[in-house]
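Following up on my earlier thread - several people asked me to post the actual chain instead of describing it. Fair enough. Here it is, all 270 residues.
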Amino acid sequence: MTITKPAAAAVSIASNALLIALKLAAAGITGSVAILSEALHSGIDLIASVIAFVSVRRADEPPDVEHPYGHEKVESVAASIEGMLILVGAGVIIYEAAHRLAIGAEVESLGFGIAVIAFSAVANGCVALFLRQQAKRHSSPALAGDAAHLGTDALTSVGVLFGLIAVEATGAEAIDSAVAIVVAVVIVIAGVRILRRSTGALVDEAPPPAEMDRIEEAIARFRPPEMVGYHKLRARVAGNRRYIDMHAQFRTGTSLERAHSLAHELRDAI
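Reply from S.P.:
Thanks for posting it. Predicted structure:
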């Protein structure tokens, strides 16, 4: 069964909305800043999922007068926004955790919190794997960014889980805030990676070297006798599309009509 990009993004929205409700309830019951940081992380993920949902619908619209190259870069813009949201959320978590360490805070009734975080880790891991598969299938930066969010959330949930278990076992409540700070650092790393990937597309970064090699191999396989060479080969990525241009050189005596026909055949071969 083929799943559309908007449908995949909608799965992420539903998952994040459920986890936010559970984590907020657990944070209220336990007083844990680590769980609260997880709830904030899921809140950012929800915003990112909504942005991804809107962007993938927009990116699939055909070219128009104002956007003759299409709308694929909307997904890269969305991924950049997601990356910035991650960094903002990490800053809030670090502030709250440091404040708790300074003034002290009690955590209690951790059993419910542990259960919620364990469920969150499993749920986010499954949804992240699903989104990663769909992002690869559709070559979607927005879905890839959303998958990265949830994958990071799953890993941080595991860290929070071990932290809560340690607090329950030792009674050292400072562990809760320390774990929240570690979670924030992991979130920052994920945010920077997403920004790096998305901004590459926005500034017309070339495809990976292996992909450029495949393009040159396609040119070499097709190359007709009339074509004596080419230069200024370049390519850029926009969503799931690749834009490639080059200057082809033809032998003296090749008619304009023949050269035009060969150029179209070369394009199809690439």
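The chain is about 75% helix and 10% strand. That should answer part of your original question.
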